[in-house]
Amino acid sequence: MEIVGNVACWGTCDILQTVAVQLTIDVNQRLVISTFYGEASDADLSETASRISSHPDFDPSFSEIIDLSGITAGTFSTSALANLSRQASVFTPTSVHVVIAPQPHMFGLARMVEVQAEETKPNAMVLKTMDEARKFLKLDKTG
């Protein structure tokens, strides 16, 4: 593991910086953060769950933040979002899922998933900022 700024990188950070999704697992706060950057695609969305579940520090009872604030281009198809809504979560049913979506179109798409995923991800919330997410999850700001 290599530390770059406040981010822990597994493997080489150059590789992590070229992908559209950065995965951070904070064992102390019992939290998984998936941060999407640049142009995100359906493949990025669908591959994230397997990356999370295969990570050695992952615990299914952790909470989850999906941060879409770094997306600059691309979008997710409605069919990929519908599949995500129906797909069983790699987290336990009591885990809390927070999606950060400051852009209006991403906020709308995330809300659509939240409503459709009531059975597979019952504790989901869509918010606009990381501060709101941390307050909602009652987390320390330092992470």
Describe the protein's architecture and organization:
This protein has 143 residues and is of the alpha/beta class. It has a single domain, classed as STAS domain (Transcription Regulator spoIIAA). 34% of the residues lie in helices and 28% in strands. The protein contains five helices and seven strands, in the order ββαββαβαβαβα. It has helices at residues 13-18, 42-54, 78-86, 104-116, 130-137, and strands at 2-4, 7-9, 21-26, 31-39, 63-73, 97-100, 124-127. The strands form two sheets. A five-stranded mixed beta sheet has the order 3-4-5-6-7, with helices on both faces. Strands 1-2 form a two-stranded antiparallel sheet. Helix 2 links the parallel strand 4 (31-39) and strand 5 (63-73). Helix 3 (78-86) packs parallel to helix 4. It is globular, with a radius of gyration of 14 Å. Residues 1-8 and 10-19 have low confidence and may be disordered.
